[in-house]
Structure formats: structure tokens, C-alpha cells
């Protein structure tokens, strides 16, 4: 619709309305017993962007993703999903845990792809992808299967709908896991080292699918050691070490001109 009036949002003198980022991690601290695993981590995942988290083994990358999904509760700090607190709500100035049901609803807005696929072994590929929309009451069985077929075609597995996970290669299983993560139309998809468990010759097919999601504007938060992939696809790279963000920025900066010796050291080892 064309209009001559200028709305406040379009006026250069008015600030644009604040659109909250897809994910905002704010000063998150996480302890396991006496060990502090996250030491005040903050990072922002903007809508439609790909954020890649790098870091040595044990630096807290998986824990950070699990905090985003509220699979782990942080001892301090918080996470917001599209501006909304994850797992907690403010009540009389204090944070109170949300109900299990509300937490599940939030988790439905976040896709999660694990290192080891975690498919249901007793379900066909099609049912693996259709399961969540049915279980959450979001879609009827037939409708969910229709959506699942479309997603399987998208990850190049339209012809394997009736197979069981054990009949597929690791790369195919991971592509099913990605289709499953998309089934609830999440606002962001988290990947925890999605290609680390794969034989080298199967890595490419999984990265191709993730690249396709990135190109189509899906918001992604990806933990990976695939530096070439990060350089090509990431909008923002975060280097985590010993529970702290050591440096972050555009890939050309962090990967090609790292300012911190620990980042340089890490990149030398993985490249
Ligand atoms: P990364 O994914 O970067 O390898 P993790 O987040 O898995 O690191 O782990 C960070 C640290 O937290 C490690 O020292 C690990 O041993 C410890 N850790 C992770 N999960 C648990 C847990 N459930 N209980 C106790 N310690 C844990
Ligand atoms: Mg990990």
C-alpha cells in the first residue's frame, strides 16, 4: 500500500522500534559442583544471521547451548528468546522458574541438532520428523506427515521416508535430525558439533544442508570446528575459552586476524 504520510518508524528523526534479537545471552554463569563452566557469557544472535561458536573441548560450548534451551539452568544471568526470558519469569522483582509446560512451549520455538543425531531408533524417518508436531498437538497426524515429507525432500531424503535410522548413513541420519529440528518451525536452530561424529566423506552433505538453511534466512547458532564453513557462512564468530568469550566479531576478523593469543593458538591447532 502506498502512502504519503511518514510513519514514526520511517522518520529519520525517530528511533526505529527495537526489534529484539532472536537470542540474547546475558552474563550467564553455570557451575557443576565446584567447577565454574560458564563465567559470565554474553552473546547476541540476530534474526536471520548465522552465529558460529568456536572453542577448545571443555570450554563450555555444549553447556551454553543447553542453557539457551533451558536444559541447564544458569546460576546467574539469563537468556532471552525474541525478547522473552527463557525458563523463568519476573515475579515481585525476582526470577521464578516457569512451569514445565511453559518451558516445553519455549523449547518448541528452538530447534536442536545434536552431535550424535539422537533419532528415535524405533520410528521411521518420516515419523521421526512428524513426531513433535503431533505430540505437541500442533498438527494432525496426516498434516504432520505432509510437512515431514516436505522437510525430508528439502534435506535430500525424500526417497527414504520409510527407512529406519539404522538403515541410513551417519550423514543421512544427521540430515533427518535437521529436518526434525525444523518441524516445529523454530525461530532459531542450535547445532552442537553437527558433523563431529561423521566420517570425513559425509561431512559435506550435512554442511550443504546447513548452508541452505543459512541462505534461506533461518537463524542459526552453530558450534563447530569446521573453520572453512564458518568463514563462508557465519555472520558472526564467537571464540569461547574456559567459559569466557575471548573474542568475537565478523569471520574475517576473528578467523583471519584474531587479536587474542588463545584464538590464534586454537586456530593453528584446528586448521
Ligand atoms: P564443550 O562442549 O566446549 O566441550 P562442555 O560444555 O561439554 O564443553 O563442558 C564444559 C565443562 O563442563 C567440562 O569440563 C565438562 O567436563 C563439564 N561438564 C559438562 N557437563 C557436565 C555435567 N552434566 N556435570 C558435570 N560436569 C559437566
Ligand atoms: Mg561439546
TrEMBL record:
It is found in: Cell membrane. PROSITE patterns: ABC_TRANSPORTER_1 (PS00211), ABC_TRANSPORTER_2 (PS50893). GO terms for molecular function: ATP binding. Keywords: ATP-binding, Cell membrane, Membrane, Nucleotide-binding, Transport. Residues 23-267 form the ABC transporter domain. The keyword Transcription does not apply. InterPro entries: AAA+_ATPase (IPR003593), ABC_ATPase_HisP-typ (IPR030679), ABC_transporter-like_ATP-bd (IPR003439), ABC_transporter-like_CS (IPR017871), MetN_ABC_transporter-like (IPR050086), P-loop_NTPase (IPR027417). It is a peripheral membrane protein. Coiled coil: none annotated. Pfam families: ABC_tran (PF00005). This is Amino acid ABC transporter ATP-binding protein.
